């Protein structure tokens, strides 16, 4: 006679997840952790996504998930009401009504080792070992700051690396934007998931051949190029962070499995990039 073990509670899941990505690692301005959900509720299915938007909640409900883990926060700035008179308020009401919990891991997942930039590096074809782009000697074990530096297995032209990066990341309307001589040889590459223009100086100081990130602004990128820095590759914010979802899901399932708990995880393929078309 076989027996089926009880599914973990939401508290069990968040406890395991926070050992991997401690909330204390998040930036002071960030909002991470449990957003909605009863810690005592059972969790059998977990959907991982970049953005907590209505389409992702639709996917979770259709699949029968009890928990959504997103990279981006729903309530990053302080609020005094979650009335269903705003898009975010309606989302909170629907989550509660459907019995779907929401948990966010943002800058604590960015700085983890492995974290968001490690997954991005793998997706665009960099070989390990990876070095931190902005090392912090105070970082504890399991944490290495935002950004990574890696090498390509074989040198290639910038245009070929751009094509390889585009093939390794989910497609978006904006694709991969490139600044630099397309024939330039690329061997070493720095990457940073999410908005990464704050690390332009670090990429230049590291002496890499190219820097791949998201949300680069016109003036900093223009000035960077004029001063002989690395080539720049700008990918969609959503696409650059999406590769981490599979890693986060695998690590969480493994952590729960070591505790004797089993969950089913799924990575959302819903494209939630802000830009849907380009002409």
TrEMBL record:
Residues in the signal sequence: none
A Pfam family annotated for this UniProt entry: DUF34_NIF3
Binding site for a divalent metal cation: 71-72, 110, 237, 241
Family of this protein: Belongs to the GTP cyclohydrolase I type 2/NIF3 family.
Protein name per its UniProtKB record: GTP cyclohydrolase 1 type 2 homolog
Keywords: Metal-binding
Species this protein is from: Nocardiopsis composta
Subunit structure, as described in the record: Homohexamer.
Molecular function terms from GO: metal ion binding
GO cellular component: cytoplasm
